[in-house]
Amino acid sequence: MEELPISMTAIFVTVAATFVFGFIWYTVLFGKSWAVEMKFDTNVKPQASEMIKGLSFMLIGNFFMAFVFANNNAAWSFVPGMDKMGLAESVMNAAGFTWLGFFLPGDLSRVAWEKHSWKLFGINTVYHLLNLVIAAIILMTM
∠ CA(71), CA(77), CA(81), 5° rounding? Predict the structure, then answer.
């Protein structure tokens, strides 16, 4: 059985980059809109323990996403013809299909079943897609 070419360095860089991207997305860019859509009281600052827990879970989740995404991308490299795609095509193929199959359905379900707004759907699903694009670029170039 052939071993998949996985770079742990690329995975850790991906974890760091997606963590920073998530922080910027959900604070600087869309923090207030996201909080309002989630029906959080924007006048109440979360406790330090809540923030530490949330950020810790985010790091763990980013690691799992990067590790599985790296393995998935490496497995797809064995499909005939995949080596003929350029970097941009490979990134969009990996990120686009992963988002379409694994993230978009959950985001749509939250609108249908949890009564999330379409605005919140947009904030979250675009984040998921761009997060995957960032991850794919790092994992495919390192």
Answer: 160
Task: With respect to residue 15, please indicate whether it lies within any of the assigned structural domains.
Answer: no
Residue 66 placed within a domain: yes
Q: Would 80 be classed as within a structural domain?
A: yes
pLDDT in tens, 35-71: 999 999 988 888 999 999 999 999 999 999 999 999 9
Provide the whole-model pTM: 0.92
The number of folded domains in the chain is 1
> What domain range includes position 116?
25-141
Q: Write out the DSSP string of 52-106.
A: HHHHHHHHHHHHHHHHHHHHHHHHHTTSTTGGGS-HHHHHHHHHHHHIIIIIHHH
Structure token pair of residue 81: 């013809």
- How far lies 121's CA from each of 43, 72, 103, in Å? 23, 26, 11
